[in-house]
Structure formats: C-alpha cells, structure tokens
C-alpha cells in the first residue's frame, strides 16, 4: 500500500493548484456575487483542460483518472469554497463521462468536444417535484411522436440550465424519463441527452425559471418544464428501458467528486480557522491555547484526514472498475462513492459552523466569507446527488443486503 501520489499525479495537482491560485482564488467572491459570469469562468476552465477531464482524447479530453479529477476538484474547491467552480467541473467530470460510456457516436462526436472547450454544459435532469430520492418513481415521459422522442414533465432543481442557454453551443441534461409503465419502476426508465440548446439555437418545447438560492450563487439551479422537448434517437443513452443503471452510474461518480469538493472546502475552512485562532487574543491569550478550541481543531483535522482517504479511495475504486479490473464491481463503486460523500459533506458543514464560532461575531458578516462556504456546502448536505439518508440506504443495502434494507 502506498499513500503517496505518483509523480504524474503530483505534477497534475501542482498545475491545477497553480491555475486555481492565479485565476480562481482571487475572484471567487466575484463568482459568488455573479460579477464574474460562470460561462466566462468555464472558458478559462476549458483552456486549462479541466472540463470533461476524464473523457477520451478523441473528444479533446485528457483521459484523466477519477483520482486526478478528484484531486483537481479538491484544489478548485480550496480556491472557490462557494463551490460554484468545483461543482461546474465535477458535473462535467461525471455526466459527459456517462454520455461517452453509453451514448451513440454521432451524439458524442457533436457534444463532447464542446463540453471540453467550455462551450457546452451537460447537467443532470433527475429530480421531480414529488421528490428526488426515489428515482424509480419518476414520471417525466418520453414518447415517440413522428420519428422523434418528445419529453413531457417537470424536472426540479436542475443545475446549469441558465448556463446552457448562455453558452455558445449550449448543451443539455441527462434526462431520466419514463418509457415504461409507472408500476415497472426502474425497469421502465430511459435516459436521454436532452439538448436544450444545440449549435447556438434554443430547442423548442421547454420553459425554465431559476430558483433564488441561499448560496453557491455562481451556478444557478432551476425548474424545468418539458412540454414536448424533441430528442433524436441518437441522443438516447444505452437501451430503451435500460436507463436506471446508467443514471446510478453517474450519481456514483458525481458523489465521489462531490466528496473531493467538500474536502477542498473543509481544508480552506480549517486553514482560515487556524490563522484566526493563532492570532485572535482574548483574555490575554490566543484562543488556540484554549483546549475547547484546539481539541475541536484536532478533531476536525483528524476527520478531514479520514474523509480525504475515503474520497481518494472511492476515486481509485472507480478507476479500477472502469479500467476493467474484475476485482471490483459497480456495487463497490456505489458504496465507496456514497461513503465519500457521506463522510465529507457532513464534515464540511460541521467545520464551517465551528470555524464561524471561532471567528465570533465577525463571521456573521459577508466580508469574512466563511458563511459563503457554508451556504455552498449546504446544497450537498440537504440533497444534491443524494440526501444523507439515501447515502446511508445505499451503504446499508450494499453491505447488509437488499433483503434486509
Ligand atoms: C443546489 C442544488 C442543486 C441541485 N441540482 C440538481 C441537478 O442538477 N439535477 C437534479 O436532478 N437535481 C438536483 N438537485 C436536487 C437533489 O438531487 C435533490 O434535492 C435530492 O435528490 C433529494 O430530493 P428531494 O430534495 O426532493 O428530497 P426528497 O426525495 O423529498 O427527500 C426528503 C427527505 O426524506 C429523506 N428520505 C427519502 N427517502 C427516504 C428513505 N427511504 N429513508 C429515509 N429517509 C428518506 C431524504 O433523505 C430527505 O432528507 C439539486 C438540489 C440542490 C439543493
């Protein structure tokens, strides 16, 4: 067992870190205040080779491993702890990879190079108004009309729709739709790459409005009404009624990289906290000298070390599975991804709340910026890509057995 990174991985992290420090870190508050539009940030990320990193070089990708993608997202989250930038990158790590793995050549050749260049965004259209956790109960329909698939239904809390509309090519969402009967549950689900804007032209058949988020303002999330959105056959991913497993693959990968984003944000929080507790003098001593503070720091530091290893291992398990190592199954990828997200997101939230206490009243004001990180991280605490109980459900089912849980 080797806990060090390979020389190739070290070089890769150093180059991402240098980009993140120079380009993203000085302007992360501008991103959160929507003064630097995410589409412009995306162009920079594309130039730096950070979009669709895990894609084949055939599409312009870097053929990066998931471990490298996790390391990159961790550094981007350290530079932008509001999480808009790392979330953009993590979504473009997970979902375009799913398109590459399950899509038709024609669709991949058209869309994936645009993603890599930062000219298109591919998001996930999963959650419906009646809930996001029970994917097998989704009701958005795909029906064949006049040679095209037409999508009808409601998708809620979809990240990136405004971005798609603002980017030069556009892009779309991996849409989870029902093509079988509702009672068929997961056996009646098909996924499509549903393009909302293609080659610069907005597709008819949908309306959209953004929610007013409490945080992570740089990357919007909205409500999508599909009213006959047309999708060509070539944009189906996998086979008819075979979409459930494909969607789950995407969630596994996204959760692993969300873990990495949470680790980057936690590192940023603890570094800010460390600087502060050493220099803030109260009752004649730096507050770091009070054990109620130094022990809490030690506890968070130790948990960070553990969660970070869980994230790197989840990425490594995904790399093993996707490189064809038969010692690993998709269940291993799912369990490791759920574990990575479960450990790291709750840690990031607790670290933010604790560091805010160390800053005292100062943390209540935007200038301190600690709360910006907390509000970004909360998106993953309350739901996005699987609420905490759903992560526990996945771990319990895979380890204890579906017959019990
Ligand atoms: C900022 C943000 C961005 C998002 N981006 C996207 C996106 O791009 N695309 C997308 O499709 N969705 C997105 N989402 C939605 C997200 O995926 C959902 O919030 C998530 O799947 C949970 O669904 P829900 O909020 O409807 O909660 P529900 O499914 O209604 O669940 C509510 C609560 O019940 C609990 N629960 C549910 N079932 C069980 C059970 N069996 N046992 C115990 N507890 C249970 C859950 O853990 C949760 O706490 C985003 C959400 C946020 C906040």
From TrEMBL:
Acyl-CoA dehydrogenase/oxidase C-terminal domain location: 241-399
Annotated ranges, domain Acyl-CoA oxidase/dehydrogenase middle: 124-227
Keyword Oxidoreductase among UniProt keywords: yes
The Acyl-CoA dehydrogenase/oxidase N-terminal domain, residue ranges: 7-118
Record keywords, A-Z: FAD, Flavoprotein, Oxidoreductase
Molecular function in Gene Ontology: acyl-CoA dehydrogenase activity; flavin adenine dinucleotide binding
Cofactor(s) essential for the protein: FAD
InterPro entries in alphabetical order: Acyl-CoA_Oxase/DH_mid-dom, Acyl-CoA_Oxase/DH_mid-dom_sf, AcylCo_DH-like_C, AcylCo_DH/oxidase_C, AcylCoA_DH/ox_N, AcylCoA_DH/ox_N_sf, AcylCoA_DH/oxidase_NM_dom_sf
Domain of life per record: Archaea
Annotated family: Belongs to the acyl-CoA dehydrogenase family.
Protein name in the entry: Acyl-CoA dehydrogenase domain protein
């Amino acid at each position: 067992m080797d806990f060090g990174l390979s020389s190739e991985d070290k070089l890769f992290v150093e180059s991402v870190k240098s980009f993140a420090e120079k380009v993203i870190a000085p302007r992360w508050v501008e991103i959160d205040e929507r003064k630097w539009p995410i589409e412009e940030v995306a162009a920079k990320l594309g130039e730096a080779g950070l979009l669709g990193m895990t894609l084949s070089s055939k599409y312009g990708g870097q053929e990066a491993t998931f471990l490298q993608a996790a390391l990159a997202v961790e550094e981007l989250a350290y530079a932008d702890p509001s999480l808009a930038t790392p979330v953009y990158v993590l979504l473009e790590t997970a979902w375009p990879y799913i398109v590459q793995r399950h899509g038709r050549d024609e669709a991949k050749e058209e869309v994936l190079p645009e993603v890599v260049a930062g000219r298109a965004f591919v998001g996930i259209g999963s959650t419906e108004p009646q809930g996001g956790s029970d994917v097998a109960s989704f009701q958005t329909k795909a029906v064949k009309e006049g040679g095209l698939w037409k999508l009808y239904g409601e998708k809620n809390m979809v990240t990136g729709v405004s971005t798609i509309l603002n980017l030069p090519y556009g892009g779309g969402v991996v849409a989870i739709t029902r093509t079988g009967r509702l009672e068929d549950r997961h056996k009646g689900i098909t996924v499509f790459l549903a393009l909302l804007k293609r080659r610069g032209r907005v597709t008819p058949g949908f309306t959209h409005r953004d929610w007013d988020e409490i945080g992570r303002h740089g990357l919007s999330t909205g409500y999508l009404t599909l009213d006959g959105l047309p999708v060509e056959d070539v944009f189906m991913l996998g086979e008819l009624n075979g979409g459930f497993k494909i969607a789950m693959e995407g969630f596994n990968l996204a959760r692993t990289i969300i873990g990495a984003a949470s680790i980057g944000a936690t590192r940023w929080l603890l570094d800010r906290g460390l600087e502060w507790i050493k220099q803030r003098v109260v009752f004649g001593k730096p507050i770091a000298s009070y054990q109620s503070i130094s022990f809490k720091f030690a506890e968070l530091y130790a948990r960070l070390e553990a969660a970070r290893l869980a994230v790197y291992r989840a990425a490594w398990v995904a790399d093993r599975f996707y490189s064809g190592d038969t010692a690993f199954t998709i269940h291993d990828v799912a369990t490791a991804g759920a574990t990575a997200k479960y450990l790291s997101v709750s840690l990031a939230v607790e670290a933010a709340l604790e560091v805010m206490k160390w800053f005292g009243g100062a943390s209540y004001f935007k200038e301190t910026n600690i709360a910006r990180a907390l509000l970004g991280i909360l998106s993953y605490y309350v739901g996005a890509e699987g609420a905490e109980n759903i992560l526990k459900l996945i771990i319990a089912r895979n380890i204890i057995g579906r017959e019990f849980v």
